[in-house]
Specification:
The protein is mainly beta. It is built from 1 helix and 16 strands.
């Protein structure tokens, strides 16, 4: 387990090849020990998308060994599998992952999986902000482990010498000054980018929720001269059922 300040993480990567349409099964054993109550997130992913995203919370000093299973169908060809463990609540936590396995299976003859049905829960929304801001928007509940897509177009205008950071998340608490890697590793973090010049920028995020949420939060922090503006256009949030 690697540790950086109050944030700890560790990961492993295994190269392999599997084709789109292949069924898969991920299994692993996990146990946690630490100084008190806390949580860690375990995420399985490939070079194309997240496949597994599970959060474990320990309300005592020990989480007994637990077996985790996750299955599905690959949506595209992949060439590697990554397992990431993140414990953002500080040093002192030890996470043990054993017997990590990734199995892939060709569909059986006649196999007809239930289709994934995308549902748009935010359609074409537009928001404008000046200087620094925090806004929370109520949305239909997004379930834990539900895959989603968030897209939008950004228009940024900055005075000279000014820098702004935009953070988008599900039901998050605004914490000023956090870097983007830290923000997106915390519960609910979706998107984070720092801008030092104006212009047009796209947002296109495909991921899976680590918890259930019912709000979408927008945080803008600007440093330098006043007069910064950021507009989010054509925001779409789509979940798969």
């Amino acid at each position: 387990m690697l540790r950086i300040g109050q944030y700890a993480y560790g990961f492993l990567t295994q190269n392999f090849a599997a084709m789109a349409g292949t069924n898969y099964l991920i299994t692993f054993n996990v146990s946690m020990t630490g100084p008190g109550n806390g949580y860690c997130t375990f995420r399985g992913s490939t070079n194309n998308y997240d496949m597994n995203n599970r959060r474990f919370t320990s309300y005592s000093e020990i989480l007994p060994p637990t077996v985790v299973y996750s299955s599905g169908t690959l949506r595209s060809d992949v060439t590697w599998f990554n397992m990431l463990a993140e414990c953002p609540q500080g040093p002192g936590w030890t996470v043990t992952l054993d017997d990590i396995a990734f199995y892939s299976y060709k569909p059986s003859p006649g196999y007809d999986p239930a289709p994934v049905v995308p549902v748009v829960i935010v359609a074409g929304a537009s928001y404008s902000y000046a200087n620094s801001a925090f806004q929370q928007y109520n949305i239909p509940t997004v379930l834990e482990a539900q895959s989603f897509t968030l897209t939008a177009d950004l228009q940024v205008a900055l005075p000279g010498g000014t820098r702004c950071t935009l953070q988008l998340g599900f039901q998050t608490n605004p914490f000023s000054g956090s870097d983007c890697d830290t923000f997106t590793s915390f519960r609910g973090g979706i998107f984070c980018q720092t801008f030092s010049t104006g212009g047009s920028f796209p947002i296109n995020v495909h991921s899976e929720t680590d918890y259930s949420y019912n709000s979408l939060d927008v945080m803008l922090s600007c440093y330098g001269s006043s007069g910064s503006t950021l507009t989010i256009n054509n925001l779409y949030l789509t979940v798969n059922t």
